[in-house]
Amino acid sequence: MGKQIIVIPAYNEEATVAQVVRDAIRVADAVVVVDDGSRDRTSALAAEAGAIVVRHAVNRGLGGALGTGIAAAVKLGADAVVTMDADGQHRAADAARIFERIGQGDVDFVIGSRMLAGAEGQSKMPIHRVLFNAVGNTLTYLLFGVWVTDSQSGLRGLSRTAAEGVDLRTNGMEVSSEFIKEARERRWRKAEIAIPAIYTEYSLSKGQSFLVGVKTAAKLILRRFIG
Amino acid sequence: MTAIQIILCGFAVFALSRVVLRFRKGGLPVVHLVIWFLFWAAVIVAVLRPSTTSAVASWVRVGRGADLVMYLSVVALFYLLFRLFGKIEELERQITRVVRAAALKDLDEKTAVASKGSAPPRIPEAAKLPPPK
Predict the structure, then answer these.
(1) What is the pLDDT of residues A105-135, one digit of tens each?
(2) Which of A121, B6, B113, B128 could be disulfide-bonded to A197 (CB atoms 3.0-4.6 Å)?
(3) What interface predicted TM-score (ipTM) does this complex get?
(4) Which domain holds residue A59?
């Protein structure tokens, strides 16, 4: 199997980033943390934990950070890239499963889905999150014509082809849906694997609030018709 | 002349003077100068002789001149908002591109140092920078 790189966008995640990096390093050849203009010690802690840190001088949002991280991974010679959140809601073991799936060579894009049948912890998912994901999926389907079970998942894998070709134009949380759009437009062969839904109080506080969700939705719709 | 007429005319004259000033400095194409000149001249006429707007209004079958002005203003403002939205989006994208290029340039330097082997353990330059304001 080729070079496997995990990309972790992080904005003010000093509480969790070091542990996430330490876990991630065990399943990848390199871990790239994109410090998206944090005001805390995210960069220093991530580097200490062994990550290659690239840093945005100013905060650009999730989409901007992911774009930078994937570009960095390609530069470092990645054959497969997995993105995961810095808040600890994804397990390194699941990233490893995504690498494995990509390593089989028949897919370009793998989504770690919390909603796929058989995913653990579904019953414990807070009801507003279930609802939120349903709205995200429906909107993604209506706008881009692709149905996936977890359009807002932050754990996803890209083959080298996909990582090189992806062109993210959105800076914010809309990026999750943009990946799906890219998958369709660039004809990536895609797959989903079930991952456990892990919700901690911390990750819930960091995720999209209702207002941010509305903003994300509005931007998605506007961009679909303007951008 | 009523107070509102004086205020609006005063503003139109002020705006015109800015347009002329910008044109003199060479920051404005002639076409724009002409368009702005016509626009503000029309504003002055409409303010001083409101009946002219009524004439135009009845020509396009709108009840009152003031209504027509409102309709046109709303349309113009929406168009402007639309343009601004697009412009801001474009700016955001450009900023991201600049920030990304800078971040990736740091990565180049880091990996270049790392591959020399003699370098001290990898402490990314980024980690040492003071946090952005």
Answers:
(1) 999 999 999 888 777 777 677 787 788 888 8
(2) A121
(3) 0.86
(4) 4-225
